Structures are given as C-alpha cells and as structure tokens.
Hints:
Elements: E1 3-5, H1 10-20, E2 31-34, H2 36-39, E3 46-52, H3 58-67, E4 71-77, H4 87-105, H5 114-126
Helix pairs in contact: 1-4
Amino acid sequence: MNAVVLGSSELAKAVKRGVEKVMPLSNDGEIVFCEPSEALKLEGKKIALFGSFVFSNFDKTVEKVKEKNVVLDSLFLKKSLFSNFSEVDLVRAEAFGEKIARRLLGLKAEKGTEKSSRIKGYVKASK
Length: 127
C-alpha cells in the first residue's frame, strides 16, 4: 500500500514525515493526504484531510468532500491568517499522518515500547 501527500505547506510537510515513518510514498498512492480544496479534484481515492480554519468557505468544502464517502479521517487546526503553526501543531500533524498510515496497515504500538510511552506522554500533556 502506498500513499501520496499533496501540498507544500509546513503542515503538509509534517504530515508527510509522519506517513514516511510507516509506509512508502509514491506519486500515485492508494491513499491521499491532502487539503480539502485538493480533495475536490480527486476521484476514486481514499482521502485523509488536513488543513487550517483560515478560509471562510472551508466548512462548505469539507462537507462536499465528505459527501463522497471517501474520507478516512481529518485533522483541522485553528490558525490566524498571518501566524505560523506552533511546534505542537506540527507534532500533531506528524502524528496524524503516522496514525492513519499505521491504522491502514493494521499496525499498533505495543505496550511498554518507546512509541507507546510517547503516545501516553502526548495524551497526558494535551489534557
């Protein structure tokens, strides 16, 4: 199973780093990680959406994509128009890419492993 990450934003690069930890990337993957505006152009692909709430028509675009019943999961972060994503946002985006890729391949973090401890630490830190 291959994946493709569309986009060149810092958020797309973070998602790409997460996906690369688990599965190979290609130009024509079975799974597409993209922003909602790109997803409207895709046909017959499974999609994982990511993006930020900057644009006013964002909700309408997401609804149109979800109507196609091809969306696996989504990550949307709040950000103002002139600010950058925080380090926490980029870590969350990377974890999103890794989580979706692991789920598609049927991989889980074993209890007691470094990965499992990192996930627990992240959950505790975000509360």
